Amino acid sequence: MSDKSVTTAPASSPAPSRPAKLNVVPVRHYGRGIGATIVVLLILGLIYSFATNPNFNWGIVAQYLFNPNVLRGLGVTMVMTIVGMVLALVLAVVIGVMYMAESRVMRWFAAGWVFIFRGIPLIVLLIFLGNLGLFFKRIVIPNPFTGGAFLDVATADVVSPFIASILGLALAGSGYMAEIVRSGLLAVGRGQREAAKALGMRSGMTLQFIVLPQALRIIVPPLGNEFIGMLKASAIVSVIAGGDLLTVVLGLSSLNFRTIEMLIVATIWYLLVIAVFSVAQFFLERKVAER
């Protein structure tokens, strides 16, 4: 009997099972939808009530929105805010650095500066600066070599309402910004200053090339908010007739007796300017964060 080779066919492997198709149902957030609907309805209702209110004369608003006097007042407000912001920032950096000084006298001076100009209400400061000529009749800078004076002018001729407004905004803003600068400087580790000192760098170079570039990431965002706050606070200079936007619209309202409509004109311009600077602040913060 001959042996016959028997070949057995390999057992077929079972077909891979397909995963069961899951029917994923997103979680329903009915509360969010209801809340969003209520908010939208409230906003639309508020807009509708203002738009259809017979007590508002929107024709007056449209008539004076691009009035040359209003635009000139807006320009004064912008110049006043930008110059005041620059001066306040310079003072804030100086006061913030004095806060970090080793001299106790400088630290006390910086603390006193912040205490005074954060504590005095802006309207009080503006009224005082606007009437500075009542207390100091003349501004005199003596010349010790000739016995004469380098400068001798009447205070009222130098400190006009516009100059007094800029000084008031700058001094008040410096009190708040100095704390912002100080917090940014403190955020940079002391070890980096000590390392720079060990490398032979002077304090000024350490501040310029090591401390301030890192502190900018912390300083820039709140400074943008301070600028917007100063822009709104510039309306207070109307108490000394600083020539700003609010001063102009209040003057026009005394002629047409439409105070609310003129205040709406000022409000529209304030909101538009703040919206533009808010967008600029967003891109500036993102640019600083990328460094």
From TrEMBL:
What species was this sequence derived from? Microbacterium sediminicola
Q: How is this protein named in the record?
A: Amino acid ABC transporter permease
Where does it live in the cell?
Cell membrane; Membrane
- Give the PROSITE patterns listed for this entry: ABC_TM1
What the entry lists under InterPro entries is as follows: ArtM/GltK/GlnP/TcyL/YhdX-like, MetI-like, MetI-like_sf
Please indicate if the UniProt record lists rRNA-binding as a keyword.
no
Q: How does it sit in the membrane?
A: Multi-pass membrane protein
Identify its protein family.
Belongs to the binding-protein-dependent transport system permease family. HisMQ subfamily.
Q: Which residues form the ABC transmembrane type-1 domain?
A: 74-281
Q: Which PANTHER family match?
A: AMINO-ACID ABC TRANSPORTER PERMEASE PROTEIN YHDX-RELATED (PTHR30614:SF37), MEMBRANE COMPONENT OF AMINO ACID ABC TRANSPORTER (PTHR30614)
Give UniProt keywords alphabetically. Answer: Amino-acid transport, Membrane, Transmembrane, Transmembrane helix, Transport
Taxonomically, the superkingdom here is Bacteria
Which lineage do the record's taxonomy fields give for this organism? Bacteria, Bacillati, Actinomycetota, Actinomycetes, Micrococcales
- Where is the chain membrane-spanning? 30-51, 71-101, 113-136, 158-178, 199-220, 235-255, 262-284
**Where does this protein chiefly localize?**
membrane
